[in-house]
Amino acid sequence: MTSLTALTDRVRARAAADGLLDVAYAELDSPLGPLLGAATPAGVVRISYLAAWDRDETLADLARRLSPRVLEAPARLDPLRRELEEYFSGARRDFEVPVDWSLVRPGFGRRVLEATARIPFGSVRTYGAVAAEAGVPAGARAAGGALGANPVPIVIPCHRIVPAGGRLGGYTGGVEKKRLLLGLERS
Amino acid sequence: MATAALPPFEALLDRHALEVRGFLGARLPEADADDAFQETFLAALRAYPALGRAENLRGWLLTIAARKAVDHHRRARREAPLEAAPEPGAEDAPVWDAALWRRVDALPRRQRAAVALRFACDLSYAEIAAHDGGSEAAARRNVFAALSTLRKELAP
Questions:
Q1: What does pTM read for this prediction?
Q2: Gap between the Cα atoms of A54 and A57, Å rounded
Q3: Cα-flanking dihedrals φ and ψ of residue A24, to 5°?
Q4: Whole-number Å distance between alpha carbons of A50 and A53
């Protein structure tokens, strides 16, 4: 009998080939701890710190908001895995994997994340500055909310947003991750 | 009452792959059981978003597996037993390619579910009725209405 793993892997491969793999996910290693990466055919749709977010909750959320056709299928996450490895080893400054913005509702929050995506490697902006770039100069606090809901951290670099006055501010995966990311980009 | 959201399909594979393979292994030679396993889960995946309700997913998978086992027996004998002959309405169904399935996604929910269960999973109208809690006649009407919409859309 063919092993069950081989059989289910065959289902995953055929699902992708037949256009039935709406959301592929894989666990990825990083210096910040294990990550869950998810991608649609359009691009990377979710990166989740597994230390901060429950894996099953994250998958259930993807099933509810995108499509229940969610399968563990690491091949689609290979480009993201490669770029993350390069980024963390200092060999990459900009991510080139396409991002699927489906989990971000249009409006101020999306404009904040789009402005954030344009901040170059090694730079930081204040919450007020990204709020202003998103069209609401007084919206620093709301910008913080939008950044906290960033579905694709690291690739959409919300760690590059800090409070005015030199402090580090918050980070969804824990502030020590933000410190590590900013440290990596300074060196 | 709100119905539970459909779990990620991965959870179905995790929970039921072993049982489905065992079910098929008891009915088919090894190589056929492997093929039928893949056919079962791909048919289920095709129809899954249209299901709309997360009840008795195990029973639903085993019903599809039973259908796939019958298909293999029929192919092996190269003759269709009468009770497994296609039901009226199935013979003149359109060609089920990816473009057609995209049109199915735009159908009203009950029609979409009935079509997916009928043509992706090969369920009978009685089995569709058992799954969605409606009557056999309603399942038949939903499939008929869906097919006439699709035919109109596909007409040159």
A1: 0.86
A2: 5
A3: -100, 140
A4: 5
Pick the catalytic residue from A158, A161, A180, A181: A158
Q: Write the DSSP string, A60-115.
A: HHHHHHT-S-EEE-GGGGHHHHHHHHHHHTTS-SS--S-B--TTS-TTHHHHHHHH
| Angstrom distance (rounded) from CA B142 to CA B133 | 13
Interface with B, mutate which of A2, A4, A11, A22 (most B CBs under 10 A): A11
**How many residues are listed for chain A in this entry?**
187
Q: Is A72 on the interface with B (CB under 8 A)?
A: yes
| Cα gap B139→B153, rounded to integer Å | 21
Residues forming beta bridges with residue A36, ordered by sequence position: A27, A48
Beta carbons of B13 and A20 less than 8 Å apart: no
**ipTM given for this complex:** 0.91
Active site residue A158: yes
The mean of the pLDDT values for chain B is 85
Pick from A32, A31, A13, A30: nearest CA to A72: A13
Is pLDDT above 80 for B12? yes
